[in-house]
Design goal:
Length: 312
Protein backbone atom coordinates (compact mmCIF):
# COMPACT_ATOMS: atom_id res chain seq x y z
CA UNK A 1 0.00 0.00 0.00
CA UNK A 2 2.82 2.40 0.86
CA UNK A 3 4.57 1.53 -2.42
CA UNK A 4 1.42 2.23 -4.40
CA UNK A 5 1.00 5.60 -2.68
CA UNK A 6 4.60 6.51 -3.53
CA UNK A 7 4.05 5.47 -7.15
CA UNK A 8 0.82 7.50 -7.24
CA UNK A 9 2.70 10.62 -6.07
CA UNK A 10 5.40 10.06 -8.72
CA UNK A 11 2.78 9.66 -11.45
CA UNK A 12 0.93 12.78 -10.32
CA UNK A 13 4.15 14.82 -10.40
CA UNK A 14 4.77 13.54 -13.93
CA UNK A 15 1.21 14.58 -14.87
CA UNK A 16 1.83 18.10 -13.57
CA UNK A 17 4.92 18.40 -15.78
CA UNK A 18 3.47 16.72 -18.87
CA UNK A 19 -0.27 17.40 -18.78
CA UNK A 20 -0.74 13.79 -19.95
CA UNK A 21 -4.19 12.34 -19.33
CA UNK A 22 -2.65 8.85 -19.35
CA UNK A 23 -0.43 9.89 -16.43
CA UNK A 24 -3.43 11.34 -14.59
CA UNK A 25 -5.41 8.13 -15.17
CA UNK A 26 -2.49 6.07 -13.87
CA UNK A 27 -2.23 8.34 -10.81
CA UNK A 28 -5.88 7.67 -10.01
CA UNK A 29 -5.28 3.97 -10.69
CA UNK A 30 -2.47 3.84 -8.10
CA UNK A 31 -4.55 5.78 -5.55
CA UNK A 32 -7.38 3.28 -6.15
CA UNK A 33 -4.98 0.37 -5.62
CA UNK A 34 -3.87 1.86 -2.30
CA UNK A 35 -7.49 2.30 -1.26
CA UNK A 36 -8.19 -1.30 -2.27
CA UNK A 37 -5.44 -2.61 -0.04
CA UNK A 38 -6.57 -0.43 2.86
CA UNK A 39 -10.10 -1.83 2.54
CA UNK A 40 -8.82 -5.41 2.39
CA UNK A 41 -6.81 -4.81 5.57
CA UNK A 42 -9.89 -3.38 7.30
CA UNK A 43 -12.00 -6.35 6.18
CA UNK A 44 -9.37 -8.81 7.38
CA UNK A 45 -9.22 -7.15 10.79
CA UNK A 46 -13.02 -6.91 11.22
CA UNK A 47 -13.48 -10.55 10.19
CA UNK A 48 -11.56 -11.65 13.30
CA UNK A 49 -14.22 -10.40 15.72
CA UNK A 50 -15.72 -13.05 17.98
CA UNK A 51 -19.15 -14.50 17.23
CA UNK A 52 -22.09 -13.19 19.24
CA UNK A 53 -25.82 -13.75 19.57
CA UNK A 54 -26.59 -11.63 16.51
CA UNK A 55 -23.85 -13.26 14.41
CA UNK A 56 -23.50 -16.79 15.82
CA UNK A 57 -21.23 -17.92 12.98
CA UNK A 58 -18.88 -14.96 13.34
CA UNK A 59 -17.81 -12.25 10.93
CA UNK A 60 -15.69 -14.20 8.44
CA UNK A 61 -17.67 -12.90 5.46
CA UNK A 62 -16.61 -9.34 6.20
CA UNK A 63 -13.60 -10.11 3.99
CA UNK A 64 -15.93 -10.92 1.09
CA UNK A 65 -17.91 -7.72 1.64
CA UNK A 66 -14.87 -5.48 1.58
CA UNK A 67 -13.50 -7.29 -1.49
CA UNK A 68 -16.86 -6.60 -3.18
CA UNK A 69 -16.60 -2.93 -2.24
CA UNK A 70 -13.12 -2.89 -3.81
CA UNK A 71 -14.53 -4.29 -7.04
CA UNK A 72 -17.68 -2.22 -7.31
CA UNK A 73 -16.60 1.15 -5.94
CA UNK A 74 -12.88 1.81 -6.30
CA UNK A 75 -12.19 0.01 -9.55
CA UNK A 76 -15.41 1.38 -11.04
CA UNK A 77 -14.53 4.93 -9.98
CA UNK A 78 -11.08 4.51 -11.53
CA UNK A 79 -12.60 3.10 -14.72
CA UNK A 80 -15.23 5.84 -15.08
CA UNK A 81 -12.68 8.60 -14.41
CA UNK A 82 -10.23 7.14 -16.96
CA UNK A 83 -12.93 6.73 -19.61
CA UNK A 84 -14.07 10.32 -19.08
CA UNK A 85 -10.50 11.65 -19.27
CA UNK A 86 -9.81 9.60 -22.40
CA UNK A 87 -12.89 10.89 -24.21
CA UNK A 88 -12.10 14.46 -23.13
CA UNK A 89 -8.49 14.20 -24.36
CA UNK A 90 -9.53 12.73 -27.71
CA UNK A 91 -12.11 15.50 -28.12
CA UNK A 92 -9.65 18.25 -27.13
CA UNK A 93 -6.13 16.91 -27.74
CA UNK A 94 -2.98 18.79 -26.78
CA UNK A 95 0.67 17.88 -26.99
CA UNK A 96 2.46 16.09 -24.17
CA UNK A 97 4.92 18.48 -22.52
CA UNK A 98 8.25 17.37 -20.99
CA UNK A 99 7.73 13.71 -21.99
CA UNK A 100 10.97 12.67 -20.27
CA UNK A 101 9.15 12.92 -16.94
CA UNK A 102 6.44 10.58 -18.14
CA UNK A 103 8.90 8.05 -19.57
CA UNK A 104 11.05 8.07 -16.43
CA UNK A 105 8.14 7.59 -14.03
CA UNK A 106 6.44 4.94 -16.19
CA UNK A 107 9.60 2.85 -16.53
CA UNK A 108 10.23 3.09 -12.76
CA UNK A 109 6.61 2.12 -12.06
CA UNK A 110 6.77 -0.86 -14.46
CA UNK A 111 9.82 -2.20 -12.61
CA UNK A 112 8.19 -1.68 -9.19
CA UNK A 113 4.84 -3.19 -10.22
CA UNK A 114 6.64 -6.09 -11.92
CA UNK A 115 8.37 -6.94 -8.64
CA UNK A 116 5.04 -6.71 -6.78
CA UNK A 117 3.34 -8.94 -9.37
CA UNK A 118 6.14 -11.49 -9.10
CA UNK A 119 5.71 -11.59 -5.30
CA UNK A 120 1.94 -12.13 -5.65
CA UNK A 121 2.52 -14.96 -8.15
CA UNK A 122 5.00 -16.70 -5.82
CA UNK A 123 2.50 -16.47 -2.95
CA UNK A 124 -0.29 -17.84 -5.13
CA UNK A 125 1.77 -20.78 -6.39
CA UNK A 126 1.65 -22.34 -2.90
CA UNK A 127 -2.16 -22.49 -3.13
CA UNK A 128 -2.77 -22.88 -6.86
CA UNK A 129 -1.38 -26.38 -7.25
CA UNK A 130 -2.07 -27.82 -10.69
CA UNK A 131 -5.05 -25.56 -11.37
CA UNK A 132 -4.94 -22.99 -14.14
CA UNK A 133 -4.76 -19.34 -13.11
CA UNK A 134 -8.34 -18.76 -14.26
CA UNK A 135 -9.58 -21.70 -12.18
CA UNK A 136 -7.56 -20.55 -9.18
CA UNK A 137 -9.08 -17.04 -9.28
CA UNK A 138 -12.57 -18.48 -9.71
CA UNK A 139 -12.28 -21.04 -6.88
CA UNK A 140 -10.17 -19.12 -4.35
CA UNK A 141 -12.06 -18.66 -1.07
CA UNK A 142 -9.69 -15.99 0.32
CA UNK A 143 -10.46 -12.85 -1.72
CA UNK A 144 -7.27 -10.92 -0.99
CA UNK A 145 -4.85 -12.87 -3.18
CA UNK A 146 -7.00 -12.90 -6.37
CA UNK A 147 -7.68 -9.17 -5.87
CA UNK A 148 -3.97 -8.40 -5.51
CA UNK A 149 -3.10 -10.61 -8.51
CA UNK A 150 -5.63 -8.85 -10.72
CA UNK A 151 -4.62 -5.47 -9.29
CA UNK A 152 -0.96 -6.03 -10.12
CA UNK A 153 -1.74 -7.44 -13.56
CA UNK A 154 -4.01 -4.47 -14.21
CA UNK A 155 -1.34 -2.07 -12.95
CA UNK A 156 1.27 -3.54 -15.30
CA UNK A 157 -1.04 -3.49 -18.31
CA UNK A 158 -2.20 0.03 -17.43
CA UNK A 159 1.40 1.24 -17.36
CA UNK A 160 2.05 -0.37 -20.74
CA UNK A 161 -1.07 1.34 -22.13
CA UNK A 162 0.03 4.68 -20.69
CA UNK A 163 3.52 4.22 -22.14
CA UNK A 164 1.98 3.40 -25.51
CA UNK A 165 -0.25 6.48 -25.45
CA UNK A 166 2.51 8.87 -24.40
CA UNK A 167 5.00 7.39 -26.89
CA UNK A 168 2.56 7.64 -29.80
CA UNK A 169 1.62 11.18 -28.81
CA UNK A 170 5.29 12.22 -28.77
CA UNK A 171 6.23 10.38 -32.00
CA UNK A 172 3.23 11.59 -34.02
CA UNK A 173 2.84 14.97 -32.34
CA UNK A 174 -0.87 14.18 -32.00
CA UNK A 175 -2.17 14.42 -28.42
CA UNK A 176 -5.16 12.26 -29.36
CA UNK A 177 -3.00 9.16 -28.78
CA UNK A 178 -2.63 10.16 -25.14
CA UNK A 179 -6.43 9.99 -24.89
CA UNK A 180 -6.44 6.58 -26.59
CA UNK A 181 -4.03 5.26 -23.94
CA UNK A 182 -6.28 6.67 -21.22
CA UNK A 183 -9.34 4.99 -22.75
CA UNK A 184 -7.49 1.67 -22.80
CA UNK A 185 -6.74 2.06 -19.08
CA UNK A 186 -10.41 2.78 -18.39
CA UNK A 187 -11.59 -0.31 -20.30
CA UNK A 188 -8.99 -2.42 -18.47
CA UNK A 189 -10.18 -1.24 -15.05
CA UNK A 190 -13.81 -1.84 -16.02
CA UNK A 191 -13.05 -5.44 -17.05
CA UNK A 192 -11.18 -6.10 -13.78
CA UNK A 193 -14.06 -4.55 -11.82
CA UNK A 194 -16.59 -6.85 -13.52
CA UNK A 195 -14.50 -10.00 -12.96
CA UNK A 196 -13.92 -9.21 -9.28
CA UNK A 197 -17.55 -8.21 -8.71
CA UNK A 198 -18.81 -11.52 -10.13
CA UNK A 199 -16.37 -13.62 -8.10
CA UNK A 200 -16.87 -11.81 -4.78
CA UNK A 201 -20.66 -11.75 -5.32
CA UNK A 202 -20.56 -15.55 -5.50
CA UNK A 203 -18.61 -15.68 -2.23
CA UNK A 204 -21.03 -13.27 -0.54
CA UNK A 205 -24.04 -15.36 -1.55
CA UNK A 206 -22.32 -18.43 -0.14
CA UNK A 207 -20.02 -20.98 -1.74
CA UNK A 208 -19.51 -24.56 -0.69
CA UNK A 209 -16.24 -26.41 -0.42
CA UNK A 210 -14.45 -27.51 -3.56
CA UNK A 211 -15.11 -31.09 -4.79
CA UNK A 212 -11.68 -32.19 -3.52
CA UNK A 213 -12.43 -30.92 -0.02
CA UNK A 214 -15.87 -32.57 0.00
CA UNK A 215 -14.28 -35.87 -1.03
CA UNK A 216 -11.85 -35.58 1.90
CA UNK A 217 -14.74 -34.94 4.28
CA UNK A 218 -16.73 -37.92 3.00
CA UNK A 219 -13.65 -40.16 3.22
CA UNK A 220 -13.03 -39.03 6.80
CA UNK A 221 -16.65 -39.72 7.74
CA UNK A 222 -16.76 -43.16 6.19
CA UNK A 223 -13.45 -44.08 7.84
CA UNK A 224 -15.16 -43.99 11.24
CA UNK A 225 -16.18 -47.57 12.14
CA UNK A 226 -19.62 -46.49 13.38
CA UNK A 227 -20.47 -44.76 10.05
CA UNK A 228 -21.65 -46.95 7.16
CA UNK A 229 -21.85 -44.21 4.54
CA UNK A 230 -22.62 -40.55 3.90
CA UNK A 231 -26.23 -40.16 2.83
CA UNK A 232 -26.22 -36.43 2.24
CA UNK A 233 -23.73 -33.56 2.71
CA UNK A 234 -23.80 -29.78 2.45
CA UNK A 235 -20.90 -27.38 3.02
CA UNK A 236 -20.71 -23.60 3.25
CA UNK A 237 -17.78 -21.22 3.66
CA UNK A 238 -18.46 -18.94 6.64
CA UNK A 239 -15.16 -17.25 5.77
CA UNK A 240 -12.00 -18.10 3.84
CA UNK A 241 -10.65 -20.22 6.72
CA UNK A 242 -13.91 -21.41 8.25
CA UNK A 243 -16.12 -24.11 6.77
CA UNK A 244 -19.54 -25.32 7.93
CA UNK A 245 -20.25 -29.01 7.33
CA UNK A 246 -23.73 -30.49 7.62
CA UNK A 247 -24.18 -34.18 6.80
CA UNK A 248 -26.62 -37.01 7.25
CA UNK A 249 -24.75 -40.23 7.97
CA UNK A 250 -25.91 -43.85 8.00
CA UNK A 251 -25.28 -45.78 11.21
CA UNK A 252 -25.87 -49.42 12.02
CA UNK A 253 -29.42 -50.17 13.11
CA UNK A 254 -28.39 -52.04 16.24
CA UNK A 255 -26.01 -49.36 17.60
CA UNK A 256 -26.89 -47.92 21.00
CA UNK A 257 -27.26 -44.18 21.50
CA UNK A 258 -23.91 -44.11 23.30
CA UNK A 259 -22.21 -45.88 20.38
CA UNK A 260 -23.77 -43.47 17.89
CA UNK A 261 -22.61 -40.50 20.00
CA UNK A 262 -19.06 -41.89 20.14
CA UNK A 263 -19.16 -42.49 16.41
CA UNK A 264 -20.22 -38.92 15.73
CA UNK A 265 -17.46 -37.56 17.98
CA UNK A 266 -14.90 -39.74 16.17
CA UNK A 267 -16.25 -38.67 12.77
CA UNK A 268 -15.96 -34.98 13.72
CA UNK A 269 -12.37 -35.52 14.86
CA UNK A 270 -11.51 -37.24 11.59
CA UNK A 271 -13.07 -34.41 9.57
CA UNK A 272 -11.06 -31.77 11.44
CA UNK A 273 -7.87 -33.78 10.97
CA UNK A 274 -8.50 -34.07 7.23
CA UNK A 275 -9.85 -30.54 6.71
CA UNK A 276 -8.66 -28.18 9.49
CA UNK A 277 -10.87 -25.30 8.30
CA UNK A 278 -13.98 -27.38 9.09
CA UNK A 279 -14.82 -25.45 12.26
CA UNK A 280 -18.61 -25.95 12.50
CA UNK A 281 -19.88 -29.53 12.02
CA UNK A 282 -23.43 -30.85 12.31
CA UNK A 283 -23.97 -34.58 11.84
CA UNK A 284 -27.38 -36.26 11.77
CA UNK A 285 -27.43 -40.06 12.22
CA UNK A 286 -29.95 -42.02 10.20
CA UNK A 287 -30.65 -45.53 8.86
CA UNK A 288 -29.89 -46.05 5.19
CA UNK A 289 -32.19 -47.69 2.67
CA UNK A 290 -32.05 -47.70 -1.12
CA UNK A 291 -35.71 -46.68 -1.39
CA UNK A 292 -35.27 -43.62 0.86
CA UNK A 293 -32.07 -42.66 -0.95
CA UNK A 294 -33.83 -42.75 -4.34
CA UNK A 295 -36.72 -40.71 -2.94
CA UNK A 296 -34.34 -38.10 -1.53
CA UNK A 297 -32.46 -37.81 -4.83
CA UNK A 298 -35.75 -37.45 -6.72
CA UNK A 299 -36.89 -34.72 -4.33
CA UNK A 300 -33.57 -32.88 -4.75
CA UNK A 301 -33.78 -33.10 -8.54
CA UNK A 302 -37.36 -31.79 -8.53
CA UNK A 303 -36.83 -29.01 -6.00
CA UNK A 304 -33.21 -28.64 -4.69
CA UNK A 305 -34.10 -25.86 -2.25
CA UNK A 306 -36.70 -28.00 -0.52
CA UNK A 307 -35.17 -31.46 -0.51
CA UNK A 308 -36.04 -31.95 3.14
CA UNK A 309 -32.50 -33.13 3.95
CA UNK A 310 -31.81 -30.83 6.86
CA UNK A 311 -29.00 -31.32 9.37
CA UNK A 312 -29.98 -31.00 13.02
Amino acid sequence: MAANLAIAVAKFVAFLFTGSSSMLAESVHSVADSGNQALLLVGNRRSRRRSNREHPFGYGRERYFYAFVVAVVLFTIGAVFSLYEGIEKISHPHAVESPAWAFGVLIFAIVAEGFSFRTAILEALHLKGKESWVTFIRRAKAPELPVVLLEDLGALLGLVFALFGVTMAVVTGNGMWDGVGTLMIGVLLAVIAIVLALETKSLLIGEGATPDVERKICAALEAAPEVDRVIHIRTLHLGPEELLVAAKIAVQHDDTAAEVARGIDEAERRIRDAVPIARVIYLEPDLYSEERARAAKAAEAAEPAASGETAT
